[in-house]
Design brief:
Helix content: 55-70%
Structural class: alpha+beta
Strand content: 5-15%
Strand order of the largest sheet: 1-3-2
Order of helices and strands: HHEHHHEEHHHEEHHH
Radius of gyration: 42 Å
Shape: elongated
Number of strands: 5
């Protein structure tokens, strides 16, 4: 056999040995996936619960997590249209307990009070509009809630809303109608204000003119002895 042929044969043996070694090596990725297997449970959320708002969805997630033990809270997550619980196989007992708690929490979740930021997101309104419409009674509060916020020394109190009331405002597009009413009212107030300002300026000009005329009369020179001359009636 020629030297070149021997070298090619040796190279084939080396490559064949490497391929065999790779084929017989355990699949560590598969083992890790098996060890990381988890238990999963899902609960659908109806549109009447989320009202099409991502902030409302996160609010429901916070409500669910608040009912769970600290060790289980991170495993419950809100996804589009559902609540999902994923926990390792080793935590089977905790998984069952958390599942039961979530099921109880989600019973009647559609009635969960709507927070201010959620109402703004659902209705696509500003904070200023929310405050104004709350003051004049167009947005109806069902009470207040007081919480201690992170980074704040004092507790914060805010109004919450009935989800069915917010849903009614959304379905009837009342926010748009209220916004148009406010724009007309603002325009009318500006018109009235401009009219009052014009009358005030006109009144000031009239007053100034009168004072000027009076001052001219008062400043006119008087002849000496004229009062006596007039009193004797010499001109009559």
């Amino acid at each position: 056999m020629k030297p070149a042929a021997k070298q090619r044969g040796s190279l084939r043996k080396i490559l064949g040995g490497i391929a065999a070694a790779i084929a017989t090596t355990p699949d560590r990725t598969a083992e890790q996936g098996a060890s990381a297997a988890s238990m999963v449970a899902e609960w659908p959320l109806p549109p009447s619960a989320t009202l099409g708002s991502s902030l409302r969805l996160k609010g429901i997630e916070r409500e669910v997590r608040a009912r769970l033990p600290w060790t289980a809270r991170k495993f419950a997550k809100a996804e589009t249209g559902r609540i999902v619980l994923r926990m390792p196989q080793a935590d089977a007992d905790a998984f069952r307990a958390a599942s039961a708690t979530i099921s109880r929490t989600l019973e009647g979740i559609e009635a969960l009070a709507v927070l201010p930021r959620e109402a703004e997101d659902i209705l696509t309104i500003s904070s200023r509009e929310r405050h104004k419409w709350l003051r004049d009674g167009r947005l109806k509060s069902i009470g207040t809630r007081t919480v201690k916020m992170r980074g704040r020394s004092k507790a914060v109190t805010f109004h919450v809303f009935d989800p069915r009331h917010i849903e009614d405002v959304l379905d009837r597009d009342l926010a748009t109608a209220w916004r148009e009413e406010d724009a007309r009212e603002t325009s009318e107030n500006r018109r009235r204000g401009a009219g009052k300002a014009a009358l005030t300026r006109a009144g000031k000009r009239t007053g100034n003119a009168r004072r000027t005329r009076n001052s001219r009369k008062d400043d006119s020179p008087k002849l000496e002895g004229w009062d006596t001359f007039e009193a004797e009636g010499l001109l009559r």
